[in-house]
Amino acid sequence: METIQLIIVGVIAFIAGSSAGYFIWSKALEKRSKKIITEAEAEGEVIKKDKILQAKEKFLQLKSEHEKVINEKNNKINASENRMKQKEASISQKMEEVARKSKDVDVIRENLNVQLEVVEKRLEEIEKHHKQQVEQLETISGLSAEQAKSQLIESLKAEARTEAMSHINEIVEEARMSANKEAKKVVVETIQRVATEHAIENSVTVFHIDNDEIKGRIIGREGRNIRALEAATGIEIIVDDTPEAIILSGFDPVRREVARLALHQLVTDGRIHPARIEEIVEKTKKQVEEEIIEVGKRTTIDLGIHGLHPELIRLVGKMKYRSSYGQNLLQHSREVANLCSIMASELGLNAKSAKRAGLLHDIGKVPDDEPELPHAILGMKLAEKFKEKPDICNAIGAHHDEIEMNTLISPIVQVCDAISGARPGARREIVESYIKRLKGLEEMALSYPGVLKTYAIQAGRELRVIVGSEKVTDKDAEKLSFDIAQKIQTEMTYPGQVKITVIRETRAINYAK
Question: pLDDT confidence of 366, banded at 50, 70, 90?
């Protein structure tokens, strides 16, 4: 207000033309300006002091924090030094123990060397006496030690063969006269047949198209569609010069089926681009998973098997997309289940347990992951995980002799698996491996003395061996058939069983002229 009043007085004086008034007004204005400057400087000093105090407080705070961090690091360093000192003390103690033990070892070694020298001297004396005795025996018998050994071995072999054949006949006769329970065991054990097999997966699926123009749309601009499809399905898509066909390649049959169905929907719909591809693939995966569960449920209902864990039902459904030697795994498992039920009923055993084990015996071939285990052992572990009974688990794990059989259901599952796999037309093999197996059968039988010709017939399920009547007797023919069967069983891999027939005949030929 005072400043405004001064300005008003100055204006009035200026208007009135009074120089004295104007002078007074200017002095007053100058005094006011100095007062304002003095007040501003005082206020600045106050602000300056506040800022200096704040800076000092911040500095002290940072200094205390820094000292705290340094103290923590010093504590850690001290603790580390203490641990190092303890380790050094422990190491020095262990080194002292090692040095003491090494001294003991040196003493023991010296004692052993002395004892070894004594033993060597005694061995030399024994060898001298042994040589003298052998020379005396050779002089008395008129045979060398090697000749006597070979004669003894040959005589023992002949006696062992004769006794073995007689024991086999005695065991078979005794088994025929055993009780009903023992008879069931013998029947099951005599019909069981180990079928060592290796699953051959079909790794490609052929997708047929109406015309080759669709191939360009599937590939897309600069290959973006085919790349998106491969990334979404995990399947390699081969588009080549094959007319009206696209090849889907991959080792996972479920993924191949997803890729095939997704590709079919995309081609039918006509809209093929990366976003649409991802959408269709996701829908198809859900459809296939639902189909797998539905197939598993239908299978268990058809076979009359109840109480299976939902995860086992899903694995049964996955068998639809797996094959072994060209035989569909689900159909094979259904067939084995029915065979097990029939055989168990004939033998007076639990048909429901046998059917359940038959259906689940190959679930180790369709796991979600791929562990390094035989499929029989893996299937047994899965059955144990989902609370199947011990006899079921043992039958699954023992159907390829991976573990020991301890129930009567186990050999039933094994033999039914072999029957289903060996059925004519059930499985297919590569032509080269098939021919190689037949040649191996014939050549193996030809290696025996007295064999003139061999013929593998009935797709390798029977081997006919023709022998010379002057070189092989009737007893030798029976023994030859047994030896060939044992050698095939131990050295060769084949489905089902091989029948060995040894034919010995005498022919008298004359000509009337």
Answer: confident
